[in-house]
From TrEMBL:
In the C-terminal section; belongs to the IspF family. Belongs to the IspF family. PANTHER family: 2-C-METHYL-D-ERYTHRITOL 2,4-CYCLODIPHOSPHATE SYNTHASE, CHLOROPLASTIC. One of its GO terms (biological process) is terpenoid biosynthetic process. The keyword Nuclease does not apply. It catalyses: 2-C-methyl-D-erythritol 4-phosphate + CTP + H(+) = 4-CDP-2-C-methyl-D-erythritol + diphosphate; 4-CDP-2-C-methyl-D-erythritol 2-phosphate = 2-C-methyl-D-erythritol 2,4-cyclic diphosphate + CMP. Its cofactor is a divalent metal cation. InterPro entries: IspD (IPR001228), IspD/F (IPR026596), IspD/TarI (IPR034683), ISPD_synthase_CS (IPR018294), MECDP_synthase (IPR003526), MECDP_synthase_CS (IPR020555), MECDP_synthase_sf (IPR036571), Nucleotide-diphossugar_trans (IPR029044). Keywords: Isoprene biosynthesis, Lyase, Metal-binding, Multifunctional enzyme, Nucleotidyltransferase, Transferase. One of its GO terms (molecular function) is 2-C-methyl-D-erythritol 2,4-cyclodiphosphate synthase activity. This is Bifunctional enzyme IspD/IspF. It comes from Erythrobacter ramosus.
């Protein structure tokens, strides 16, 4: 496994108390179906999976039932009532966390459903040097100043950036800045609020997937998500006497087993990495660092199911997997049906979407000498079709 440092603890506020007037319709946009589930559910699931605690959802007073239905089954979400403007709603969210005093907080628009884990990592890393950090993207078009439909000037795009959310802050600094805000009009975002209190804001790399759903056509637009994506995973574990041998979620009788921090199920690790790779969510070590004692001896099925949850949160369902195990011993053939059934069960797939193959390396190399087992997997994921919100 590749190791990665665990994320520092953080709280999150998802602001979702807007009316969605520019999108229109009877139901506010954050509760409407987008890629198979309510818009707000996508980013709440992503933050929850990243470990946000507490996680506050800021909802309009008349939309609490919508919100509870949209986020049903996600444990630990604190629902609070928002204000008349986005800035008011953020302030309500911060005040709700004042007693908990988290070290840092991510403030995120429910209107930006596609939230990559890598952006969260970049923002929290930047907070070690600055009290605020925001994801930004460059401006690629030239810019004009509009004066009643006539161009009256230009702006220098080289120094301008498009600003997204989530925006990350040391909690005490952003709460104090919101409380001290004296602007006549609302700030455009929370980074501007922090700057008004002389807090420095780091610019981290944003992501096109974080596009804000603002207009009705954004619900239909393909955004940047392709219909299919592919990921591959590769893993190796050492064979040692006295260890259990787990392959594809099945315990296999053998005179040696695979050694590792978890149950060392090399097959499930390769599939997990392939799923994470398909949706650009890092690797298994990013989510389950071997340095973390809670994963000692852990069953690897939970790693795979976590990766599938991240794929779902990004709007993707698994199409099929193809796994190759590379070893001299044990012979995989007799165990293939049980492994195929278990991998299909763990992934919520039919067995014909799960292929398990095996090969030797003709007694060459470490697999040939029986020192270890290698596994490689390819996964195809497909954009989930837009069905009714469940
Ligand atoms: N009083 C408000 C207004 C906005 N928001 C939230 O702030 C985010 C960014 O706002 P925007 O995308 O502009 O949403 P709306 O304000 O709902 O849109 P509109 O201006 O079209 O009504 C959204 O997640 C929105 O729900 C909020 O929590 N409270
Ligand atoms: C906070 C924000 O998403 C940063 O780009 C943006 O300012 C929200 O603006 P809106 O007018 O409330 O959509």
């Amino acid at each position: 496994m590749v190791s990665a440092a665990p994320l520092p603890p953080f709280a999150a506020i998802v602001v979702a108390a807007g009316k969605g007037l520019r999108v229109g319709g009877d139901t506010p946009k954050q509760f409407r179906n987008w890629r198979g589930k309510a818009l707000i559910r996508h980013s709440v699931e992503a933050l929850n999976a990243a470990g946000a605690d507490p996680l506050v959802a800021v909802i309009a007073a008349d939309a609490q039932d919508h919100a509870k239905a949209a986020l049903a089954g996600i444990s630990g979400v604190i629902f609070i009532t928002g204000g008349a403007t986005r800035q008011d709603s953020v302030r309500c969210g911060l005040e709700a966390l004042a007693d908990a005093k988290p070290q840092s907080v991510l403030i995120h628009d429910a209107a930006r459903p596609d939230l990559p884990h890598t952006v969260i990592e970049r923002l929290l890393t930047a907070l070690s040097e600055h009290p605020g950090a925001i994801p930004v993207l460059p401006v690629v078009d030239s810019l004009a100043v509009d004066n009643g439909g006539v161009m009256s000037g230009k702006a220098e795009r080289e120094t301008l950036r498009r600003v997204q959310t989530p925006q990350a802050f040391r909690f005490d600094a952003i709460l104090a800045a919101h409380r001290a805000w004296q602007g006549v009009t609302d700030a455009g975002d929370d980074a501007q609020v922090l700057m008004a209190s002389n807090g420095s804001v780091a610019l981290a790399q944003g992501d096109e997937r974080l596009k804000k759903i603002t207009f009705a056509e954004d619900f239909a637009a393909p955004m940047t998500a392709p219909a299919f994506r592919i990921g591959q995973g590769f893993d190796v574990h050492r064979l040692e006497p006295g260890e259990e041998l787990w392959l594809g979620g099945v315990q296999i009788p053998h005179d040696k087993g695979l050694a590792g921090h978890s149950d060392a199920d090399v097959a499930l690790h390769a599939i997990t990495d392939a799923v994470l790779g398909a949706v650009g969510e890092g690797d298994i070590g990013t989510h389950f660092p071997p340095s973390d004692p809670q994963w000692r001896g852990a069953r690897s099925g939970q790693f795979l199911q976590h990766a599938i949850g991240l794929a779902r949160a990004a709007g993707y369902a698994i199409a099929n997997i193809d796994l190759t195990l590379i070893c001299e011993e044990p012979k995989i053939g007799p165990h293939r049906p049980a492994m195929r059934a278990e991998v299909a069960r763990l992934m919520g797939l039919s067995e014909n979407a799960v292929s398990i193959k095996a090969t030797t390396t003709e007694k060459l190399g470490f697999t040939g000498r029986g020192e270890g087992i290698a596994a490689q997997a390819i996964v195809c994921v497909m954009l989930a079709s837009e069905g009714p919100t469940s």
